[in-house]
Design brief:
alpha/beta, 11-stranded mixed beta sheet, 15 helices, 38% helix, globular
Length: 490
C-alpha cells in the first residue's frame, strides 16, 4: 500500500495506524536480515507513535498529510533520543538530543518514524560498503550493492519494508541507490529543504530528500518537508507550488537529452532502457530532443570538481569529531595523541582519504590551483545547465552509468567507485532538482534483470515540475516489477 493510500485511509478512520505499523514490523523481521537496511529500530517507539496518531483520529482531529505512514530516516538525520551514528564508529553509541527540521515536519503531519537506516560512513560512498558497521544488500540480489550513500533507505523501500524513507544527497546519494534498487529518489533544489539536524558532509551540496515506492509518495513527502527554516540560513523563502497536486501531463513539455548524459562509459543495456523511456515520453506528447555534444561541455569535469569541493568542506565539517565531545575515544598519551588515535582508529579508510584530499586542496600553495579552480569550473557547469534550461523544461538521461554491481567489486578501486556519481554530480554542483524513476530492467549484460533509473533534471525551484513529470512517466510506464525478497531462512 502506498503512503498516499495509507494516509488517506487513516485520516478517514478506515485504517488503524497501529495495524499498519505492526505489519511494517513484521516485514522488517522477515526482510531486514536479508537486506541489512537498518542500523537500529525501536519497536516500542514506533508503536507508541502509531498509537498517538490513532488517538488523534479517535478524537476527531486531522492527524496530518502523512497520518500513520511508517517512514524510515537515514542515520545521519537527527531524531531526538535515537541513534545518530552517520554510519561511523566514531559516533557509535551517540544519541541525538534534538530533532532535525525534517523530523519535526514529518511528526507534525502524523508520520510514524520507523528506524534508522544504514549508510556509507558520513555519507561518503556509492555502495553502502563504507558503512562502519556492515554493508546493506540489494533487494533484487543479496550479492549486490544497493548503491549509496543512502543504500539502507533505498533497500528498505525496495524490499517493501516501508513505502518511504528519507535519505541525503551530496553527489548522487539519493538518486543512484534509488536507481539500483528500483525505487523513486528525489533530490530537491538546494535550499528548498532545511539541513538543520543533518550531519554535515559538504555544506554547499548536502540536501535531504525522499526515496519512495512511487513518485506520488515522493511528492507527498517533499510537500511536507520543504519550506523555510529560520534555523538554516540557506533555506529559501516564499510559497512553493505543491508537488503532490501539480498536473501530471507531459504534453508539450520540452525535454532535452544531452549527449554528455549518453557517455560511452554508460552500460549499453542501461542506455537501451532509457531510450525506451524517452520514447514513451514522446508518445505521451513530450517534445524530446538530443542535445548535441558541447551543451554541457564541462560536465565531464564534474567528478574531480565534486570531489575537490565536497572533500574540502568535509575536512572542515569533520574536524569536530575528535572523541572529546562525541562517541568513543582513545586516552593514550597527551591530547594530540588522543586526537590522532581516536580519529585514526574510528574513521574508516574512505573518510580518512577524503579528509586528506580536502586538507591538501585547502593548504597554502595549493588553494588557488585546486579548490579555487574547482569552484570556477563548478560555476561553468551550473551556467551550462542554466543556458540549456532556456530552451528545455527538463533534461533527461540515465541516472547511473552502471547497475547494481557485486559486493566487493569496486572496493579496491576508489576511482571506479567515484565514477558511480558521473551522471548525478552535475545537478548537485548547480543545486538543481532531480529525480530518478524506475524505467524497467536491463535485458542483457552484467546487469540483466536488474533495475534501471531514468533521471530528470529541472530548473531551480521547479521541484513540482520534476516530480509531476516523474508521476506522469509512472502512469505511462505502468506498474513496475518488484523484487522477490526472501526471508533469511531461505
Amino acid at each position: 500500500m502506498s503512503a498516499a493510500d495509507i494516509a488517506s485511509r487513516v485520516r478517514a478512520g478506515e485504517l488503524d495506524p497501529i495495524v499498519v505499523t505492526e505489519k511494517a514490523l513484521a516485514r522488517f523481521e522477515e526482510r531486514n536480515p536479508v537486506v541489512h537496511a537498518y542500523l537500529d529500530l525501536d519497536r516500542e517507539d514506533a508503536l507508541q507513535r502509531a498509537a498517538a496518531v490513532s488517538e488523534r483520529v479517535s478524537r476527531g482531529e486531522d492527524p496530518g498529510q502523512l497520518a500513520g505512514v511508517p517512514i524510515s530516516l537515514k542515520d545521519n538525520i537527527a531524531v531526538a533520543g535515537a541513534t545518530l551514528t552517520a554510519g561511523s564508529r566514531i559516533l557509535q553509541g551517540y544519541r541525538s538530543p534534538y530533532d532535525a527540521h525534517v523530523t519535526e515536519r514529518l511528526v507534525a503531519e502524523g508520520a510514524v518514524l520507523f528506524g534508522r537506516t544504514n549508510l556509507d560512513e558520513f555519507a561518503m560512498g556509492a555502495s553502502t560498503e563504507n558503512s562502519g558497521f556492515a554493508p546493506s544488500r540489494n533487494p533484487w540480489d543479496r550479492k549486490r550493492v544497493p548503491g549509496g550513500s543512502s543504500g539502507g533507505s533505498a533497500a528498505a523501500v525496495g524490499a517493501g519494508i516501508v513505502p518511504v524513507a528519507l535519505g541525503s544527497e551530496t553527489g548522487g546519494s539519493i538518486r543512484q541507490p534509488a536507481a539500483l534498487c528500483g525505487v523513486t529518489g528525489f533530490k530537491p533544489t538546494y535550499g528548498s529543504v532545511s539541513r538543520r539536524g543533518l550531519v554535515a558532509f559538504g555544506s554547499s551540496l548536502d540536501q535531504i530528500g525522499p526515496l519512495a515506492a512511487t513518485a506520488e509518495d515522493a511528492a507527498l513527502v517533499f510537500d511536507v518537508i520543504t519550506g523555510h527554516d529560520p534555523g538554516d540560513a540557506t533555506t529559501t523563502t516564499g510559497k512553493r507550488p505543491s508537488a503532490f497536486l501539480a498536473p501530471t501531463s507531459v504534453e508539450g513539455l520540452r525535454i532535452g537529452i544531452p549527449e554528455e548524459f549518453l557517455d560511452p562509459s554508460v552500460d549499453p543495456h542501461i542506455l537501451a532502457q532509457v531510450d525506451q523511456a524517452t520514447d514513451l515520453l514522446s508518445e505521451a506528447g513530450a517534445i524530446t530532443k538530443v542535445v548535441p555534444a558541447g551543451g554541457l561541455a564541462h560536465a565531464n569535469l564534474s567528478i574531480p570538481v565534486y570531489y575537490l569541493v565536497s572533500s574540502s568542506e568535509a575536512c572542515s565539517n569533520l574536524a569536530r569529531f575528535d572523541g572529546m565531545r562525541y562517541g568513543p575515544r582513545h586516552d593514550d598519551g597527551d591530547l594530540l595523541d588522543a586526537y590522532l588515535a581516536t580519529r585514526a582508529g574510528h574513521f574508516g579508510a574512505e573518510v580518512q582519504r577524503r579528509i586528506l584530499l580536502g586538507t591538501f586542496a585547502l593548504s597554502a600553495g595549493y588553494y588557488d590551483a585546486w579548490y579555487k579552480k574547482a569552484l570556477q569550473v563548478r560555476r561553468l557547469v551550473s551556467d551550462e545547465f542554466t543556458t540549456l534550461f532556456k530552451e528545455y523544461d527538463l533534461l533527461a538521461g540515465p541516472t547511473s552509468p552502471v547497475g547494481a554491481f557485486k559486493l566487493g567489486e569496486r572496493t579496491d578501486d576508489p576511482y571506479a567507485m567515484y565514477l558511480c556519481d558521473l551522471l548525478t554530480a552535475p545537478a548537485c554542483l548547480g543545486g538543481f532538482p532531480s529525480v530518478s524513476v524506475p524505467c524497467g530492467l536491463a535485458r542483457k549484460g552484467p546487469y540483466k534483470g536488474l533495475p534501471v533509473g531514468l533521471q530528470l533534471v529541472g530548473r531551480p525551484g521547479e521541484d513540482h515540475v520534476v516530480l509531476a513529470a516523474a508521476r506522469a512517466f509512472e502512469a505511462i510506464r505502468g506498474e513496475p516489477e518488484r523484487p522477490v525478497v526472501y526471508s533469511a531462512a531461505e
